[in-house]
Amino acid sequence: MTHRSVPVARSRRLAPVAVAALLAAFVVPVLAAEPANAATPLRTLAAAKNKFIGFAAATGPLANESAYRTIAQTEFSQITPENAMKWDSTEPSDNQYNFSGADQIVTFAAANNQVVHGHTLVWHSQTPSWVQSLSASAMRTAMNDHIATVVGHFASNPVVQSWDVVNEVFDENGGYRSSFWYNTLGSGFIADAFRAARAADADAKLCINDYNVEGINAKSTAMYNLVNTLKGQGVPIDCVGLQTHLSTQYGFPGDMQQNIARFAALGVTVRITELDIRIPTPRTAAKDATQAQYYTNVVNACLAVSACTGITIWGFTDKYSWVPDTFPSEGAALIYDENYQVKPSYTAVNTALGGSPNNDTTAPSAPSNLAASGTTSTSTTLSWTASTDNVGVTGYDILRAPGTSGGTFAVVGSSTTTSFTNTGLTAATSYRYQVRAKDAAGNTSAVSNTVTVTTSGGTGDTTAPSAPSNLAASGTTASGTSLSWTGSTDNVGVTGYDILRAPGTSGGTFAVVGTSTTTSYADSGLSAATSYRYQVRAKDAAGNVSAVSNTVTVTTLSGGGTGGCSVTATVQTSWGNGYVMDPVTVKNTGTSSITGWTVTFTLPAGHTISGSWNGTVTVSGQNVTVKPVGWNSTVAPGASVAFGFQVSRPNGDTSTASGFACTTP
Ligand code: XIL
Questions:
Q1: Does 88 sit in the ligand 1 pocket, CB within 6 Å?
Q2: pLDDT exceeding 70 applies to what percent of the chain?
């Protein structure tokens, strides 16, 4: 049989048909648009047939185009890097490896539950020139090193399951291709490459891959004989890749299934590795139909032989296809058009895999046994028995209605599993739930049984928590204060506290300024030198609120920054029944100026103040309060003022005033 497709290197042999190309430029194809794609994804259908369905991934659109990514992850279970694992990508210069593109694809595949076929280790194309000019021993070393490093990079990653070890080693007549590999190393490089790959990964499936080997012909027979020989020699070869770059103008290889079957009989698996079916551009409905039939034929050939493990399409959108660049006047070889719309070829593949892409009207069965568990005051977890569907259930809607009767069911969430947790519910409140199933074609099932859920928090719990007590403020600055209190108690548990604040020292209204789940709260953003009153109250899970705590009044410090003062008292002189303390130094320890200060101290029993200077002294029992006299009221940050006083005491008593403390307003 004559060959039907040509590789990159030989594409020049196809002379561009100038007239056809010229016509193509003026013919606007008018093609029936396929219906919006509501089909069961190819990967779902293929899995049911125990096959993979994959595509060749280009790193650019995979990184940049969401439409590309969506189809890639929805429709396919397998990826072959179109270029990113080739030698010129992974080892552009000797021993300089770069796995950025390859890793990007493997990461995407892992995230989408897909497997990766490594392509390709030893090929005459897309291999840097430094390899091509090596001596035999250096080339052998380079090949073994390359295989060890590239296969080794992915060996422990379960996503990468197989490799094209050698690619396109035959010519069209069944001889070895006169490549630099063959010309330098002889045909032994093939077995060597397989052994090196096996040494680098004991588990990966190792393949030989070629084009124009889909039907039975001289080239495929040469491949068959080589596989047979290698297996006889114990060379680790597991699979055969039929690239399957077809063109409708060369006819379909009608013995493809038979060819797959004869390879299978050798004990290897067979993959369709690079499927595309090009047509003479521009597209017409008739050409699309022929192409669709070819796709059907390929899928059927693979389905017919269990050793055919799956099909990789060489891309999926005509927007990114190597065909127009390689085969003049041919193109539109894939299953989606340039705008990511499915083509008849998509419908053909879907249908051949067992789907009914355009006419599935069968709804899934209704989910059953809907039940709720783990209900708290704010959430409940639903679970149910799965629905069944002819093309597969894609997910479930969760519907909720308020109360135990009446109201309307509305969708509150969706799930791809048979459970769902609904959060954000109100305590001690009833809800009804139902679920329904959806399939890939958009059909929706009847709803399940209804389950009624009442959140906890105590249906009928009307017992409020005890009021918080001992509310106190500390650490007051010019702009904030810290509150703390003694916690409340409650029959169903305190869930938190409201913090209420009123302006000034009396009057005004208390309003909630914050909440706390602990027994403290820091209020901020207050005005300097301003009074506020605080209260707190407790809440429980059922929404009951306690009486308020005691009220605490807070006056913030003056100034924009923090105020504060310290006091240091010195006994200047003393005698049998008296002493002088001077200086008693008041220092502004804050970051802003203070206006006014108050020093307090305690006189021992029997001591009385007999004179003072630079301070206004008030005595109450043994407690003494000293304030500025006027001129020493304002103190800059870090500055000090001082006052002094004289004390009379019982004869022989050597004690002095103590407990000096300083506060600022
Ligand atoms: C092609 C890619 O699709 C192009 O992007 C690249 O420019 C050339 O190679 N046989 C193979 C594939 O094994 O690696 C080739 O891929 C197509 C022919």
A1: no
A2: 92
